[in-house]
Specification:
By secondary structure, the chain is α+β, with helices and mostly antiparallel strands. The chain folds into two domains: about 140 residues, Jelly Rolls; about 80 residues, Arc Repressor Mutant, subunit A, CATH 1.10.10.10. About 40% of the residues lie in helices and about 25% in strands. It is built from eight helices and eleven strands. The protein has a four-stranded antiparallel β-sheet. Strand 10 and strand 11 form a beta hairpin. The N and C termini lie far apart (about 40 Å). One of its GO terms (cellular component) is cytosol. GO terms for molecular function: DNA binding; DNA-binding transcription factor activity. This is Crp/Fnr family transcriptional regulator.
Length: about 230
């Protein structure tokens, strides 16, 4: 780790996954100069649909939900953001989606106009941001069909696989759930009792093992993937 990094950047657990990945010390210092740390409590919004698009962020820890108002007035969750993901939209006048915390979250927040100017001076960071944005769009495309499935067990199985993959589960497929059962239910559009029932059923069927409040080990990824479709 270069010794000239700003302390906040040197200690950042998401630096190797975020927009900053691959940037040198001087470039990181420039990002640090316009950024500030912001913490969100579960349920708190980062930005609302229709608000001026004034700030973006790197998500350092926690999970955020991205939701959109449908034509019939209903609210649909269209994606989840994990540590290392870019939050918000550059080069836009208004926020198209509402972004809120599903769990307590830590972000590195940048005002959009200074960030846009900084990216113009550092093309490598601009290319990385484009790759991050395309990856996030791909995640949204994966997420929306999952939510459209009628079967609750398919949604729960798909979310478990997604959290294990995005959480970089160890080789033995053990990871810590980043969300409570209530937050999982909210993300999937289900009742918390439904989520708990299917988690218990997966454990009884030998698909997963649960330990403590958040510990999960995937015992049979192939069967879970089959249920998830």
């Amino acid at each position: 780790m270069p010794s000239d990094l700003p302390p906040r950047c040197a200690a950042c657990a998401a630096r190797d996954m975020a927009l900053c990945d691959g940037l040198g010390g001087a470039e990181l210092a420039a990002f640090h100069d316009i950024g500030r740390r912001r913490r969100l409590s579960a349920g708190q919004a980062f930005g609302w649909s229709g608000d001026p698009a004034s700030h973006c962020a790197n998500l350092v820890s926690g999970v955020l939900k991205v939701s959109r108002v449908e034509a019939d007035g209903g609210v649909q969750i269209v994606g989840l953001l994990y540590p290392g993901d870019f939050v918000g939209a550059l080069f836009a006048e208004r926020c198209t989606d509402t972004i809120a915390a599903l769990s307590d979250a830590d972000l590195c927040v940048y005002p959009c106009l200074p960030l846009e100017a900084l990216l113009a001076r550092h093309p490598a960071a601009g290319r990385l941001l484009l790759r991050r944005t395309m990856a996030t769009l791909a995640e949204v495309r994966r997420w929306m069909p999952m939510l459209a499935r009628a079967r609750a067990e398919a949604r729960v199985a798909a979310l478990l696989l997604d959290m294990a993959r995005r959480g970089e589960a160890e080789r033995d497929a053990t990871f810590r759930l980043p969300l409570s059962r209530g937050a999982m239910a909210e993300a999937l559009g289900l009742a918390v009792e439904t989520v708990s029932r299917h988690m218990t059923a997966f454990q009884q069927d030998g698909l997963i093992a649960l330990s403590g409040l958040r510990g999960v080990r995937l015992l049979d990824r192939a069967r879970l993937a089959g249920i998830a479709g």
